Amino acid sequence: MTPQAFDAVCRALPGVTMDVQWGDDHVYKVGGKMFAVYGPAADTFCFKASDIAFEVLTETGPGKPAPYLARAKWVWFASLAGQEAGEVEGWLKSAHGLIAAKLTKKVRAELGI
Question: Which is nearest to 73 in space by CA: 93, 85, 56, 86?
Answer without folding.
Answer: 56
